[in-house]
């Protein structure tokens, strides 16, 4: 039993630290996922969940930091009993979320490991059940987990971990995620990711006499009833399926993915920060002069954006995109994305607006 207890101790500690680090790497993405849950719960359970939405970013950093801190505290066996009870409360909460998502098919990606590792709702729920069992076992076998350092040393490590976690999360919010796990990361070619990497293959689920059978070719036996068609190699499907840019008269998706483009992403004018538009406007003018076409993409209405662009003196043609896609492209509102023939050459938070020399150096690399 001692071996099992120590094995579970190490596994749970490392997994919580890993999960927290992945989430705190992208606090905006975690906040977006929390907003999804609050939206669903406010409709299905109680309207008061809607009141949590304005605090999504705070909760994102707090919960991510809590996972890291509790994982580290467990690892160094500091305040073991209290830490295990807190982990139990946290995993019960997460188990409820993942069960609700899986059973009612509400939030199809729990965001347990951010964009780094995608789990289906039932996979997430299974993972949480396993963790729940492990934590209960650890609570019952604490005698095998004796402290191996002084309490003061454990407290110092835990406090430093908490401070660093909050600083890391806040810095990622004020800039961009340290590691970009999304399909629009620097170096990726969007048109390539909009196509399958290999021909998709399917299997057919058919029913006959109350029994289901699978076929790789559609059966000629007409006594079978068709149930569904499932991809055998879904990983070969397009990684990007919803990238579109348009205006009131035409589709501009291919135009965006051709030549040198500087995209100014304004996800929503209602939430857009206006502090750094002087730098952005300077870059827009310099980019035009350097042969790089600036294009604004927003999910706001034309009327709202017209008022906004005059407020911030943004002199560039604007187009429309899906709000969810724009949030996926860049975790900054506004944010800047540099494309060359559909390849992402650079991404910047509005707090890190580059100068024209940095931009031209990036797009000229392939031409030399």
UniProtKB/TrEMBL annotation:
Chief location bin: membrane
Keywords, ordered alphabetically: Membrane, Transmembrane, Transmembrane helix
Transmembrane feature ranges: 55-76, 83-104, 124-141, 153-173
Keyword RNA-binding: no
Location of this chain's protein in the cell: Membrane
Pfam families, sorted: MauE (PF07291)
Domain of life, source organism: Bacteria
Membrane topology field: Multi-pass membrane protein
Domain Methylamine utilisation protein MauE intervals: 2-140
Protein name in the entry: DoxX family protein
